[in-house]
Amino acid sequence: MNPLPSPAPLASKLRNTLVRYHSIGDGEWRLAKKTKDATVWRKPSEEFSGYLYKAQGMVEDVTNRIVDHIRPGPYRLDWDSLMTSMDIMETFEENCCVMRYTTAGQLWNIIAPREFVDFSYTTSYEDGLLTCGISLDYGEVRPNFVRGFNHPCGWFCVPLKDFPGHSLLTGYIQTELRGMLPQSAVDTAMSSTLANFYSDLKKALKM
């Protein structure tokens, strides 16, 4: 089992990577899916042979409450239908931890349940927040799960000045599911999962 990395340099590098993704011009993205709740684009990832996905939508709530529902904590399991378990393995400080979580099978179980161990970090960004993460090679892989790997991922949530009580939520996700999977199935699942994430989150925030 690899030792845990030092959290401060990892958090700083992760934040810088997400800010760089956030500055990628519109022309580099290709539309993948559009629903009433969110728009999803993609571009080839620099990290692995799959795609970096960008999802964006307006959410009716304040930034802090939205991010509290996304980052590791008690809310996430209540509403995220894809996530089946979550354990905080290590806590470095209030906004920084290592978590292990599992996801349900997808696409009629073509994609079997997955397990991830992620370093998670939440920090301020402009007038809002950024919560981001990256997978670590840490902890034993549990039986019945394939260990997936999240390359740098994150969610920017900033208040919309023209719409009080609303926030713009922009996510960057690049998940390497691993295992023997057709890439087309992964791409279909990712676009739909990200669009559903917004609709599920909106329902949870209204409760």
From TrEMBL:
<dbReference type="InterPro" id="IPR042555">
    <property type="entry name" value="StarD4"/>
</dbReference>
<dbReference type="GO" id="GO:0010879">
    <property type="term" value="P:cholesterol transport involved in cholesterol storage"/>
</dbReference>
<dbReference type="GO" id="GO:0005829">
    <property type="term" value="C:cytosol"/>
</dbReference>
<feature type="domain" description="START">
    <location>
        <begin position="10"/>
        <end position="207"/>
    </location>
</feature>
<dbReference type="GO" id="GO:0120020">
    <property type="term" value="F:cholesterol transfer activity"/>
</dbReference>
<dbReference type="InterPro" id="IPR002913">
    <property type="entry name" value="START_lipid-bd_dom"/>
</dbReference>
<dbReference type="InterPro" id="IPR023393">
    <property type="entry name" value="START-like_dom_sf"/>
</dbReference>
<dbReference type="GO" id="GO:0032367">
    <property type="term" value="P:intracellular cholesterol transport"/>
</dbReference>
<dbReference type="GO" id="GO:0070508">
    <property type="term" value="P:cholesterol import"/>
</dbReference>
<protein>
    <submittedName>
        <fullName>STAR4 protein</fullName>
    </submittedName>
</protein>
<dbReference type="GO" id="GO:0015485">
    <property type="term" value="F:cholesterol binding"/>
</dbReference>
<dbReference type="Pfam" id="PF01852">
    <property type="entry name" value="START"/>
</dbReference>
<dbReference type="GO" id="GO:0005783">
    <property type="term" value="C:endoplasmic reticulum"/>
</dbReference>
